[in-house]
Design a protein that fits this description.
403 residues, alpha/beta, globular
């Protein structure tokens, strides 16, 4: 298959939906020579801050001179964003070659692999082929049954845990924490961000069961993070540094500072221009940190809000929290089969008490929001963040993916 054919085949596997479990992943890994056995992983789970923490670890490792793989999800514009080596996206010919190999391995299976299982094994195969020193490895959803959990890492990293993906992970914070604690392995050091008491209890119990040393970071990174504003990012930076130390990576304070100065993570309080911020916050805790970051950067200035969300998110809670920094909202559809229509979002916006509520396309709404002469904030979904970035870059609208 060429790149276009390979990507079309991969996206076609979305019909299999989200399927939690490790059997297919292990089977695929074995089919391509168990590349995970030749790699050192830094495995990251949590609800909020996973991508930013991964980006920080990657930047610090590269500042220290290590050849570093970075696997994250979802992508915003280009599928290849998910798989990076030393900051560069996986080449198109490598995607085509790897997916051709995986398709051949799985074509006779009764239970076909999912999009995320294939992407995960493609990443491990590529990183091993290219000789990565370390791989920063982000879970897609949960942890215990996530495809990324088919590896044994040097360290398990837990970012702040909150309510999200309840359909798959459970209806309580303790249940969700139990799924995410599934990345804790026997004897493997674990480092966590500060957590609510019920989450901390679950993590402590799992670590004790596994005989895994467990550390909670106690204070935020003391320096500035030019590319990632907001107090929550200083906690993520502290977590990233503690995780690298726990994994036995030799880095010093100067290297940590150099890496953190360089890090940028698209779609997370991304200040595209002086007056346009794009943030993929899509659960209540993430929106709270977004509001804090907005106030840190813009003070009391109100936002012209462009908002879209997936149908399985609580748009009402998100809009109620965003109302703290905005009076006027433009509701837009998200390009995803799971996306809410503007008509579905309208009652939540009205209930949140916005002074003015508009509906329109993404392009129309961005133009109108800018005309209001206030800073514009795009929020509610990473899918929306990717769509806006593609629009600004003049790129084709990204294809929505399950994870």
């Amino acid at each position: 298959m060429n790149y276009a054919d390979a990507l079309a085949w991969l996206y076609g596997t979305q019909t299999f939906g989200i399927k939690l479990g490790l059997d297919n992943t292990r089977r695929l890994l074995a089919a391509v020579g168990d590349p995970q056995a030749r790699l050192r992983f830094l495995h990251v789970a949590g609800t909020n801050g996973k991508g930013s923490t991964c980006a920080m670890m990657d930047a610090i490792l590269r500042a220290a001179g290590h050849r570093t793989g970075l696997y994250t999800s979802p992508h915003l514009v280009d599928f290849r964003e998910r798989i990076r080596l030393d900051g560069a996206m996986i080449p198109e010919d490598a995607v085509a070659g790897g997916l051709t190999l995986l398709r051949g391995a799985a074509e006779s299976w009764d239970h076909a692999p999912t999009f995320f299982e294939l992407a995960t094994v493609l990443a491990a195969w590529w990183f091993a082929r290219e000789g990565a020193d370390y791989v920063v490895w982000e879970t897609g959803m949960g942890g215990r049954l996530d495809a990324t959990n088919a590896v044994t890492p040097e360290v398990a990293v837990i970012t702040p845990i909150g309510m999200d993906h309840q359909k798959w992970l459970g209806e309580s914070l303790a249940q969700i924490a139990g799924e995410k604690a599934g990345i804790i392995k026997t004897g493997v050091p674990t480092v966590s961000a500060p957590q609510p008491s019920e989450v901390r209890t679950v993590l402590e119990a799992r670590a004790a069961e596994a005989g895994a040393p467990l550390e909670f970071v106690a204070e935020p990174w003391p320096g500035d993070l030019p590319g990632l504003p907001g107090p929550h990012q200083r906690w993520n930076a502290s977590l990233a540094c503690a995780a690298l130390r726990a994994a036995g990576v030799q880095v010093n304070g100067e290297t940590e500072s150099e890496g953190l100065r360089r890090v940028v993570w698209p779609g997370r309080f991304q200040r595209v221009t002086e007056n346009l911020v794009i943030d993929g916050a899509h659960n209540p805790e993430a929106v709270e940190t977004l509001v804090s970051a907005w106030r840190e950067v813009f003070g009391d200035r109100r936002a012209s809000l462009v908002f879209g969300a997936l149908r399985d998110k609580d748009a009402g809670q998100l809009l109620q929290r965003l109302r703290a920094i905005s009076d006027e909202v433009w509701l837009v559809p998200v390009s995803s089969a799971r996306g809410s229509s503007t008509a579905e979002l309208r009652p939540a916006a009205d209930a949140a008490g916005f002074v003015a509520v508009h509906e329109g396309s993404v392009a129309e709404s961005l133009t109108a929001a800018h005309a209001a002469k206030r800073p514009v904030l795009v929020a509610g979904s990473l899918f929306l963040a990717g769509e806006v970035l593609a629009l600004l870059e003049g790129a084709p609208s990204p294809q929505a993916t399950a994870q």
